[in-house]
Write a structure and sequence with these properties.
Elements (H helix, E strand, L loop, with lengths): L3 H24 L3 H23 L10 H8 L15 H11 L7 H12 L9 H21 L4 H5 L3 H34 L4 H5 L2 H16 L4 E7 L6 E16 L5 E15 L6 E2 L2 H6 L6 E2 L3 E2 L10
Antiparallel strand pairs: 1-2, 2-3, 3-4, 3-5, 3-6
Length: about 300
C-alpha cells in the first residue's frame, strides 16, 4: 500500500493544477471549461481530506480487490487499477468530515452536474453560475484548512479573482437578505400588529408544529440539531437548523477515572421564524442577517465502539 501522506500529496498537487485551470477559464468567462476544471479540483481536494482518515475512504465499495490493494493485503490481485469513488460520493463523504460544506451542497452538486453535462451553465441564469463559483470557493477554503493549507495555496495567483467574485456575491446576498427581512417585518405587522403579546404566545404550539415540518423537509440529513434564536426581523423566537461539529474531549477525575465526551458546536445553515415567516436558506444568508455562524451545542457522550448493524 502506498504511504497515505504520499497519496494525499499527489491528490493536492493535482487539485492545485486543476484549480489553476479553473481560475484561468473563469477569467476568460468559459463557463463549462471552468466547471470541468473546478469540479475535478474539488473532487481531488475532497479525496485528499478523506485520505487523511485512511486511503480506504476513497475506494469504490463495489471493488473489493481495490480495497484489498489499498489495505496492502496479500490476496489483492497485482497490476490492476485501484477503483475510487466518483466526485459526488467524495463530496458526500467529505461533508461528513467538514459539516460546514453541507450548506453549499446544492452548488457543489450543480458543479459536478455541469462537469458531467447535465447542467449547462452557459444557458442558465447568472445566479446559478455565481452559486457554483461561490460553492467551489467555499470548498477550496474548507478543505484547504483541513489539509493544513490556505485557500491561496490552492488557488494561487487566481485567489484575487475569486476574492472579487466573493465580495460581489456577498453584497448580492446582503441585498437579498435585507429585502427579505423588510418583507418579513411588514408581514409580521399585518398578521399580528393588533395582538397583545400574551395572545401571540398562545399561537406558538401551532406555529412550532409547522416549523418542525419545514425543518424536517429542509434537512434530509440525520445529524442535524436545532436551536432557538431571536428573529432578525420581528424579534420573536425562530428556529435555526444546524449541522454539528464535534471535538472529542477527555479528562480524569481525582481518582484517576477517565471521562470522554464530544464538545458540540452548532453551525446554523437554515433559519425559519414561525411568526413573520422569515426564511434563510444557507450560511451566507444566515451571516448576512446577523446570526452567528457558530453556536454552542449540548455536549454528547463519547461512544468508543460502533453500534454495528449486521442487516
Amino acid at each position: 500500500m502506498s504511504d497515505p501522506k504520499t497519496i494525499v500529496s499527489q491528490l493536492v498537487k493535482g487539485a492545485k493544477s486543476f484549480a489553476a485551470d479553473a481560475g484561468r477559464e473563469l477569467a476568460a468567462d468559459h463557463k463549462h471549461k471552468f466547471a470541468v476544471a473546478a469540479a475535478t479540483a474539488g473532487e481531488l481536494l475532497a479525496k485528499a481530506v478523506l485520505c487523511q482518515v485512511h486511503p480506504a475512504a476513497i475506494v469504490d465499495p463495489r471493488q473489493f480487490n481495490s480495497l484489498l490493494r489499498i489495505l496492502g493485503h496479500k490476496s489483492a490481485k497485482a497490476n490492476t487499477p485501484t477503483k475510487t469513488i466518483g466526485g459526488r460520493e467524495a463530496l458526500e463523504r467529505a461533508i461528513t468530515l467538514i459539516p460546514k460544506l453541507k450548506s453549499h451542497e446544492k452548488g457543489l452538486h450543480e458543479l459536478i452536474e455541469a462537469r458531467n453535462g447535465t447542467v449547462h451553465l452557459g444557458e442558465e441564469s447568472g445566479v446559478l453560475f455565481a452559486r457554483v463559483v461561490g460553492s467551489f470557493d467555499h470548498l477550496v477554503s474548507e478543505t484547504a484548512a483541513g489539509l493544513g493549507l490556505t485557500r491561496e495555496d490552492v488557488l494561487g495567483k487566481y485567489a484575487q479573482l475569486f476574492d472579487e467574485l466573493r465580495d460581489k456575491a456577498k453584497t448580492e446576498v446582503e441585498q437579498r437578505v435585507s429585502k427579505r427581512v423588510f418583507a418579513a417585518k411588514t408581514r409580521f405587522t399585518e398578521r399580528f400588529g393588533d395582538l397583545e403579546s400574551g395572545a401571540l404566545d398562545s399561537l406558538a404550539p401551532v406555529l412550532e408544529s409547522e416549523t418542525n415540518e419545514m425543518l424536517e423537509a429542509w434537512s434530509g440529513y440525520e445529524d442535524v440539531g436545532t436551536t432557538s434564536f431571536e428573529c432578525p426581523a420581528c424579534t420573536r423566537w425562530g428556529v435555526a437548523g444546524c449541522f454539528k461539529e464535534r471535538e472529542a474531549k477527555f479528562e480524569k477525575d481525582e481518582d484517576g477515572m477517565g471521562y470522554a465526551w464530544h464538545e458540540v458546536t452548532l453551525l446554523p445553515a437554515y433559519f425559519l421564524c414561525r411568526y413573520c415567516g422569515l426564511q434563510l436558506e444557507d450560511q451566507d444568508e444566515i451571516q448576512a442577517a446577523g446570526i452567528p455562524d457558530k453556536l454552542d451545542g449540548e455536549d454528547e457522550s463519547y461512544i468508543d465502539e460502533p453500534d454495528w448493524d449486521y442487516g
